[in-house]
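Trying the structure run again after the queue cleared.
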Amino acid sequence: MSTNRSRSFLPASLTSGSPILCLVVTPPAVTLLLLVRHALTDSTGKTLTGWTPGVHLSERGQEQAEELADRLAGAPISAVYSSPLERCRETTAPLAASAGLRVRTRADLGEVKYGEWTNRPLSQVSRTRLWVAVQSNPSSARFPGGESLLECQTRVAREAARIAAAHPGRAVVLVSHGDPIRLLLAHLAGVHTDHFQRLVVSPASVSAVAVGEGPPRILRVNDTGTLVDLVPPRLAQLRRTAHPKRMRG
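Done. Tokens:
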């Protein structure tokens, strides 16, 4: 009988308030993947920047990266992997520095290759027929001059599997982009690609998945460390106006 003991990989920031997650233990052969979406940029939610170089975190995004490092400070992270794009590497930097780890870049963790759609505003592409397919039948969608969403899902899932196999029994951070993470979560959950749009992965969010023995276990999705993103913007503005000191506190 093995003398290795199961242990929880989840830091307090990911388990607080959740009795189910507080009881989660991970067998020695299982890898905990912490999937992190990059923090905010000035173009997040506005433009499909894709693989465009030189897209950096905004001031708020830099703050989110520091907050992320604080949230994961209690996790026994053994390795940090990142998309090669600047916004991901900048998100990773504070976390890697605090953990004393180098950042390993992997191209297959990169953003969807949008081809001719790269750098087009979402307000423009959302009026096209292809956008309708991307939303309703994404498994059949291919971006002109780029890749299909299925191809993106395949490469991200393949890279995640390689990373998990290289770190059995460890906790590993993977910093990527919104759609690749949602496609990976759909794959790991056994959800058809046509339904991946039902998942939400916010900037600087953490999703946790245990892989390695039996089916993957989805432990947490889109953890932002706060519930403020669930408050409608108009209501949040009204509350700030009515209770400025409370909102700052």
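Residues 1-25 have pLDDT under 50 and may be disordered. Worth checking whether this holds up in the mutant runs.
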